[in-house]
Amino acid sequence: MRNKFIPISIILIVLFGLAVAGYVSPEKKEKIPVRVLFKNSGGKVIFNHIRHHRDYEIPCEKCHHERKTSDDEPLPCGSCHPESFDKDYVREHIRSFPDTSYCVQCHHAELGKLNFDHAAHEEYADEDCQACHHGNDIEKEPQKCGNCHTNSGTSEIPSVRDAAHDRCIDCHDEMFEAGLKGCTPCHKMQNMKDYSGDFTACGQCHQENDKDLVLNRTNAFHDQCMDCHKKLQRGPYKESDCSKCHLK
């Protein structure tokens, strides 16, 4: 009876050994892709990746612009440049990156403690609180802005950010003309390399449509590829050369 269990025991030991070996062995790095298929409304594009990298000897950082050193593994273009900048991409894009260190490439600013001297502003306003606060018809006594204005705001009450900015710009229009560069006189910025909180929506600071902040894959490739081909005057670079890349 015992002899019957010997083969089973051997098989179980072998399978266990393979499982342990697979668990402890280092993960194999993905090989450089030979060709990459892109689907779009203008016709599928087969991009010969290996030819550009090996035969044309184009360094990785020439196209993969997030690559900082020769030791960095270049990210797939789709990690940053989606087919469509939509809610699905915003929700799932974090899965495209190997770790959170890449977050600061796009999420480059978060506000810290507000550098605001209330006593000094009282002096500037000659103790006229209504220079910043609402009049008696809205609030009999000056209150903290956050008592009524929330971070998100409503259709009736603007966000605390918009309400404060509307007040501040009356006196500090020169700061706001500088755009994002004008944040630091009032706001202390977070060190994003050490930041671990939730990221503010891009539209809170960038007034342009969010879609303009990240190029979709088609526009990114057109800009990157066409600029290079036009500069070299080689390959498909003319307006009539679409069929050289796009398949019907």
Kindly list the characteristics that best describe this protein.
248 residues; mainly alpha; Cytochrome C3; 3-stranded antiparallel beta sheet; 8 helices; extended; transport; electron transport; metal ion binding; Cyt_c_III_dom; Cytochrome c family protein
Note the topology.
Blueprint: H1 2-24, E1 35-38, E2 44-48, H2 49-55, H3 60-63, H4 87-92, E3 111-114, H5 118-124, H6 160-168, H7 173-177, E4 187-189, H8 217-232, E5 246-247
Antiparallel strand pairs: 1-2, 2-5, 3-4
Summarize the structure.
Helices cover 31% and strands 7% of the residues.
- The name of the CATH architecture of the domain at 35-81 and 215-247 is Alpha-Beta Complex
Query: How many strands in all?
Result: 5
Rounded average pLDDT: 82
Strand order of the largest sheet: 1-2-5
- In terms of DSSP E residues, the strand content is 5-15%
> Spans of 5+ residues with little confidence (pLDDT < 50)?
none
CATH class wording of the domain at 35-81 and 215-247: Alpha Beta
User: Count of helical segments?
Assistant: 8
Q: How would you sum up the major sheet? A: 3 strands, antiparallel
H/E element order: HEEHHHEHHHEHE
- Anisotropy-based shape: extended
Pfam families: Cytochrom_CIII
Binding site for heme c 3: 118
Keywords: Electron transport, Heme, Iron, Metal-binding, Transport
Binding site for heme c 4: 133
